[in-house]
Amino acid sequence: MQTITETFVDIFGDDQNIESYFAPGRVNLIGEHTDYNGGHVFPVALDTGTYAVARKRMDKKLCLYSMNFEGKGIVEVNLDSLVYENDHNWANYPKGVAYSLQEQGYQLDYGLEVVYFGNIPNGAGLSSSASIELVTAVMLRDVNDLPIDMVELVQISQRAENEFVGVNCGIMDQFAIGMGRRNHAILLDCQTLDYHYTPLQLNEEVLVIANTNKRRGLTDSAYNTRREQCERALAQLQMHSPIQSLGDLTEVEFEQLSHAIENEEDCKRARHAVYENRRTILAVEKLKVGDIQAFGKLMNESHISLRDDYEVTGLELDTLVEASWEEGAIGSRMTGAGFGGCTISIVKKMDVERFKEQVGLKYKQVTGLEADFYIVNISDGAKKLEEGVTI
Q1: Is 173 a catalytic residue?
Q2: Choosing from 35, 47, 173, 248, which is the catalytic residue?
């Protein structure tokens, strides 16, 4: 924070009347590609994320600077004339939040001077975009004294990404980042936004994120194709059952109805969505009774389903996960959209250094790429930082 404050002084002149904010990144422990199929997800907020030092302006200007994109300089815009601009790059995300707040009828009389810094690895799929959206939403709420709770800020931030930036994301990322709670995971029903916190106290274990460092060029087109396949399968199932989503089905009900899905690939995609949703609910029950081994086994089953039925893994993710299994991970799976990005593993503390070394070696032997490893803690959601308080 000291470095960010010093940068703020360099950019904006002094450190009078500044405030500090933080929004985490997120990782999903289990429940992948279930959000748009009416199912459950089980994410946690991380202790890496987006930091911001900000000062209220007495006019309607946003003056935005990112230490991660220093070459872009200050992006200056007026709150009354916000439009998406390619040249503004990263700044379209905070601009989109301001735009969406006003679209929802909230009056923004005061702008901001902001310096952002994010320590979420670029391209890792840990949701740096939603992190900058939520930290901006909290800042704008504060300086304009807006009567908005966090769930509505989450929805506004998702709308910013969907409608202003043009990325058709679900609500999980923003929800986990806005509503995160230290040492808890969130079981979220993505259809109803019903949610429950589950304690995740890892005493002898740690969460290890491994980044494949493979760019995910196929993700957007593959993601849209998977959604279409699930929608076709659902439409055919609805001819035989009054369901609203694939998440409404149990495994037994799906197997009884699956003959109605005409295309074999569509059937595989739907099978993953149904089984993964049930796996997620069961995993939370295992965690509640402290059965971390059973939780890890369900994580492994999740990866196998994503590999075989949903087909969104690929050589890099499979290699990392299989090496993690071989090196004693309690559970390991891909997390995020797939085709690159990260894995999440539960590893015994005493084994971590050996785990990183051996998994990294096996991964490089197969792929030629270097994996990066991050031991992460579970943090609170987006918030203003009180002086002397750590994340």
Answers
A1: yes
A2: 173
